[in-house]
Amino acid sequence: MARQARAEITRDSVLAGAADVFLRLGYANASLSEIISQSNVTKGALYFHFGSKEELARAVVDQGNE
Questions:
Q1: Please, what sign has the CA dihedral across residues 28, 62, 32, 21?
Q2: 10 Å Cβ neighbour count for 56?
Q3: What terms describe the molecular function in GO for this protein (predicted)?
Q4: Which of 5, 4, 31 is closest to 18 using CA atoms?
Q5: Between the CA of residue 9 and those of 25, 26, 40, 64, what are the distances in Å?
Q6: Distance from the CA of 53 to the CA of which of 3, 25, 36, 47 falls in 20 to 30 A?
Q7: Nearest CA among 1, 29, 51, 49 for reference residue 16
Q8: Which residue, 1, 6, 2, 29, is CA-closest to 49?
Q9: How many domains does the structure of the chain reveal?
Q10: Cβ pair 39, 46 in contact under 8 A
Q11: What does pTM read for this prediction?
């Protein structure tokens, strides 16, 4: 599998996991550890794609608006 395709799959997994965690716990109560666990990715993979919880939340909202 090409690196770019794998990166897209990882990013999509993080977004889906984050959306679920934000929905269940709310933004304030959601932790990056919970999102990592839900997404089944490493901490490094999450931070490669998103620099912060705020940036991740914006991406989740943007994806929902597409």
A1: positive
A2: 25
A3: DNA-binding transcription factor activity; transcription cis-regulatory region binding
A4: 31
A5: 24, 24, 12, 17
A6: 3
A7: 49
A8: 6
A9: 1
A10: yes
A11: 0.90
Q: Are 49 and 10 in contact (CB under 8 A)?
A: yes
For position 47, which CATH number holds?
1.10.10.60
* Residue-range definition of the domain harbouring residue 17: 3-64
For the chain, count helices (H), then strands (E): 4, 0
pLDDT score of 2? 72
Tell me 52's DSSP state. S
Q: Are 21 and 30 in contact (CB under 8 A)?
A: yes
pLDDT higher than threshold 70 for residue 1 = no
The count of other CB atoms within 10 Å of the CB of residue 30 is 20
Which of these, 11, 25, 24, lies nearest to 56 by C-alpha position? 11
Question: Which residue is listed with tokens 């993080």?
Answer: 14
Two tokens, residue 33: 């550890």
